[in-house]
Design goal:
CATH architecture of the largest domain: Alpha-Beta Complex
Number of helices: 10
Mean pLDDT: 91
Structural class: alpha+beta
Order of helices and strands: HHHHEEEHEEEHEEEEEEHHEHH
Distance between the termini: 34 Å
CATH superfamily of the largest domain: DNA methylase specificity domains
CATH class of the largest domain: Alpha Beta
Number of domains: 3
Low-confidence stretches: none
Largest sheet: 5 strands, mixed
Length: 341
Amino acid sequence: MLGSIGHIGIIPKDGPFEEYIISNKQLKLRVNKEIVRPLYAYLYFASSLGVDYVKSYAKGAAVPGISLGILKGLEVAVPPLPIQDRIVSLISTYDDLIENNTRRIEILEEMARRLYEEWFVHFRFPGHEEVSFKESELGEIPEGWEVKGLYDIAEVTYGHPFKAKQFNDQGEGLGAVRIRDIRDGQVKTYTTEEGKPKHIIENGDILVGMDGQFHMGKWAGGTAWLVQRVARFRPTQPMSRYLLFLTIERPIKHLEETIVGTTVAHLSAKDLKAMKVVVPDEATLKMMADALEPMYELEMRLKRKNVNLRTQRDLLLPKLVSGEIDVSNISMPNDKEVEAA
């Protein structure tokens, strides 16, 4: 089913609904199953080859689009069914590995949040029975703990105003992380413009979008530029990166819900400088780091695997559907190969 020009989706075989409705800006495609596997057709049109092919037939000056007549007239080279099945199986293996890693990441995130809530919300950390509490501007906190400003515990860096006219999607230059890339964990935009060394993002950095929804992410998309309206956070004291992420997550979410803009909500440097957080004593910081940092490292490895898997899959797919690569010579991907990539 084609939506925005070149965008494609597929109705799930075992989806939650029996029927779906498409709008007048979408086209529905049903294939002759005796000639084409539905999943193969989906993969063809989802590949960069298929997207470019569809876009090449788009008409309209202001808003390009394609009609049903254009879609019906498109010619597509279709390999024999066994080859289609092999291509579908190969790409599905990539997707299954990505899904499995994603589930493991979700489990790690849930474990980290539960541990954080137990220690820092309910204050049931090791030895809490022998600790007295005191009043603070953020409520009762354990003795030895402090309320500090965000800038006391983290290095906050704001993105560089790179020139949009130098952005490209052909991989020229270095990746530029924009707000929309934070959740995806991968760059789609590149620039040949040079920023300052402080604007370089590395794996493991914490990123927050500062417009609209204040998306937060733990970056694993490789070295890239930090773009304007994205902020980077790095701990400046013996605090694990995961603890810093969890510490600022609730205040950031609260700001997102309470900041009201005329059109789009904006997170400002003033908002971040005014942020107050609870910081534990050194012993608790160390115990938390010992528990969370290995989880953070594992999450980073899994995210890097997914980046590699998506990159390999997206490079391979157009070559398979075009026949440039003989699918019989391609082996199924596995975790060990991806780890080394």
